[in-house]
Amino acid sequence: RHLVKWDEVRLLMAAS
């Protein structure tokens, strides 16, 4: 389930 972590990373990128 490493894809789930990517989801969090993408959220951080979008928040940036």
What's the total helix number? 1
Form type: rod-shaped
Largest sheet: none
Low-pLDDT residue spans: none
End-to-end Cα distance, whole Å, is: 24 Å
Summing up helix and strand content along with how strands pair, one would put the structural category as mainly alpha
Mean pLDDT: 87
Our estimate of the beta-strand percent is: under 5%
Strand runs, count:
0
Question: Share of helix among residues?
Answer: over 70%
Order of helices and strands: H
Using only C-alpha atoms, the radius of gyration works out to 7 Å
Which features characterize this protein?
single chain; 16 residues; mainly alpha; 0% strand; rod-shaped
Could you characterize the architecture of this molecule?
This protein is an all-alpha fold and 16 residues long. Helix content is 88%, strand content 0%. It contains 1 helix and no strands. The longest helix is centred in the middle third of the chain and has 14 residues. The radius of gyration is 7 Å and the shape is rod-shaped. The N and C termini lie far apart (24 Å).
